[in-house]
Amino acid sequence: LLELSGHFEIQKVMYGFCSVKDPQAVLPKYVLVNWVGEDVPDARKCACASHVAKIAEFFQGVDVIVNASSVEDIDPGAIGQRLSNGLARVSSPVLHRLRLREDENAEPVGTTYQKTDATVEMKRLNREQFWEQAKKEEELRKEEERKKALDARLRFEQERMEQERLEQEERERRYREREEQIEEHRHGRRKQRSMEAEEARQRLKEQSIFGDQQEEDDRQQLRKSESEVEEAAAIIAQRPDNPRDFFKQQERVASGSSDAVSPGSHRTGRLHCPFIKTADSGPPSSSSSSSSPPRTPFPYITC
């Protein structure tokens, strides 16, 4: 054991296997030393905590497993006492763990004195330190996870707010563009309406001017017609005889001559017209008025 203890280093996790000669036994006993240096990182200690059973199964026939972190823990006297008191482990690591658990829970009978076992005490301290360190690491891990989740949530919220802001700006831009288009359309419609109204006013003005001109032309035509009628009436008034009386007299002459002519008589070569007389016709009939004016001669009309 002394020679073996000189090879352990405080910065490493090492395993030592040696034989110890028991004067009371015929065969030597085999001891497995589980060395965990004081300067070994806690993460390395946690990783190698479950390797002892595998090492014990690899070395068949291990009687005692000694957990040590310093040279003082490898005490040949204590190890020899464990071997002589029958506390040596059997080859099965499961039975050895059960025996160690019974040793930890065992209480002396009939006395208040408790024997301090350096190995058990060291294991208990190591176990407590291990679980305390594991608990601290678990709390640190959970705290780190909470921080990461909080950062991720904050980053997601910021991205979501930025996306909403961009979408809001895009909606406002489209709304402004549509408002501008509607305003332009309204302005164009108002301009078109104003142009149409101006054209309508121009047409009405032109129609009114044309109507006034037409009305003026009608009035002038009416005045011209009235002047012509007045002129005709004045000319008629200046005549010495009345044409209507002349035509009435001719009608009476025609009616008298038609009664004198027989129905079977027929005159050829000339068209007989009661209203047409020659220049050498006879004097007017006795039935005509004595005050009638002289007749105007008319030429013959031939067929």
TrEMBL record:
InterPro entries in UniProt: ADF-H, ADF-H/Gelsolin-like_dom_sf
PANTHER family under this entry?
A: CORTACTIN AND DREBRIN, DREBRIN
Record field: compositional bias (Low complexity): 281-293
The ADF-H domain is annotated at 1-84
**Gene3D superfamilies given in the database record:** Severin
Which species is this UniProt entry from?
Dryobates pubescens (Downy woodpecker)
Acetylation found in the keyword field: yes
- Region listing for Disordered, in residue ranges: 161-303
| A GO cellular component annotation in the UniProt record | actin filament
Taxonomic classification: Eukaryota, Metazoa, Chordata, Craniata, Vertebrata
Q: Output compositional bias ranges, type Basic and acidic residues.
A: 161-186, 193-206, 241-251
* Keywords, in A-Z order: Acetylation, Actin-binding, Cell junction, Cell projection, Cytoplasm, Developmental protein, Differentiation, Neurogenesis
Major localization listed first in the record, in broad terms: other
A single Gene Ontology molecular function, please? actin filament binding
Task: Name one process (GO BP) from the record.
Answer: neuron projection morphogenesis
Q: What is this protein called?
A: Drebrin
